[in-house]
Specification:
isomerase; PLP-binding_barrel; binds pyridoxal-5'-phosphate; elongated; TIM Barrel; pyridoxal phosphate; five-stranded antiparallel beta sheet; alpha/beta; Alanine racemase; EC 5.1.1.1
Length: 377
């Protein structure tokens, strides 16, 4: 089927990035975060590349994402860490999906699902060490651990992991980092004294930023997300040898000469200063090209950078080619690794005042993901 735009995903880049992160992880196991459609790169093919690159586990936010991986034939261990009321826990257990618990009530719900399905639930207990998002706060942690041990005695649950998440790992030297590590140590000690730790139980806290800057946070397993897709977790410190996996391209639609003084797109935010050539790019805010990119982001067209001219519409935006040629059907590159002079996802993020996570995860379902360098296996 013809589509006027594609997100090309370089699976060799993902494999390279995962291998590089594994090398930096002090021998820890690697759980690749493939939530949100593998950060917009396409769930199953990306997950396969992540496993080929050296990950032994996968992590998702929701059970539905983990089930989609199973449906796609992925057999590796998967943890779903964002469990809210109504999550299909029975389904999760039937498909051998590990789940996270931050409170006793959820743990009891998981145990009920275990009894209903006749399976032992594999559980990771989450400690809130200072982010105040998920996780049991220090005052509730001993009770969560104690309940998990009771349920373990009944064989309703198996304690697979003890984990937490950093709030500021991408701000090296932020005082909360050392505080969170200390709080994690305390939580681990409590679990150990209660008999819930031990060599089988994996401890994990490091996201991409902590992997590249904080060896003390590697523990038994690391959980990279953004870096696997080749986007720097700490742009101020460089690219760490990572290679951007996604290239977003579109084929130019209408190309036309317009006179000086032509108001371009909604609200006429851009008016031509002289006779010029305009090119139509068939991607818009419905595809994740934020309306906020109007007049801010650049694309590569006809060998040169061009600013988005006028307002980004739902399905399209315009670029000003000046007197340079552009033919209908010619490729326009919105972002890529930068090798061909195209902007990177980091440049888009900087120009839009956001982070690369948001740039790539917002690319919409209308844009097909086209995979390059699939493994020969
Ligand atoms: C998204 C996520 C990660 C990966 O984070 P990055 O900063 O993209 O490396 C790791 N752990 C949890 C719990 C997450 O939600």
């Amino acid at each position: 089927m013809h589509t006027p735009a594609q997100a090309r995903v370089d699976l060799a880049a993902i494999r390279h990035n995962v291998a590089l992160l594994k090398e930096r992880a002090s021998g820890a196991e690697l759980m690749g975060a493939v939530k949100a459609d593998a950060y917009g790169h396409g769930l199953v093919p990306s997950a396969e590349a992540v496993l080929e690159g050296g990950a032994s586990r996968l992590g998702t936010a929701f059970v539905s994402e983990a089930l989609a991986l199973r449906e796609g034939g992925v057999t590796a261990p998967i943890l779903a860490w964002l469990i809210t009321p109504g999550e299909p826990l029975d389904e999760a257990l039937r498909h051998d999906i590990e789940v996270s618990a931050s409170e006793v009530r959820l743990l009891d719900g998981i145990a009920e699902a275990a009894r209903r399905t006749g399976r032992t639930a594999k559980v990771h207990l989450e400690a809130d060490t200072g982010m105040s998002r998920g996780g049991a706060p220090p005052a509730a942690w001993p009770e969560l651990v104690a309940r998990a041990l009771e349920l373990r005695a009944e064989e309703a649950v198996e304690i697979v992991g003890l984990w937490s998440h950093f709030a500021c790992a991408d701000i090296p030297g932020h005082p909360s980092i050392a505080q969170q590590l200390e709080a994690f140590e305390t939580a681990l000690k409590t679990a150990e004294q209660a008999g819930a730790a031990g060599s089988q139980v994996i401890r994990h806290i490091a996201n991409s930023a902590a992997i590249v800057t904080l060896p003390a946070a590697h523990y038994d397993l690391v959980r990279p997300g953004i870096a696997m897709y080749g986007l720097s977790p700490i742009p101020e410190l460089g690219d760490f040898g990572l290679r951007q996996a996604m290239t977003l391209v579109a084929q130019a639609g209408l190309v036309k000469r317009v006179p000086e003084g032509s108001g371009v797109s909604y609200a006429h935010l851009f008016v031509t200063e002289r006779e010029t050539t305009l090119g139509l790019v068939p991607l818009g805010y419905a595809d994740g090209i934020l309306r906020h990119a109007t007049g801010r982001a650049e694309v590569l067209a006809g060998g040169r950078r061009r600013l988005i001219a006028g307002r980004v519409c739902m399905d399209q935006f315009m670029i000003d080619m000046g007197d340079d040629p552009l033919s209908a059907g010619e490729e326009v590159v919105l972002f890529g690794p930068g090798d061909g002079g195209e902007p990177t996802a980091q440049e888009w993020a900087d120009n839009l005042g956001t982070i690369t996570h948001e740039i790539v995860t917002r690319i919409g379902a209308r844009v097909p993901r086209v995979y390059e360098h699939r493994s020969s296996k």
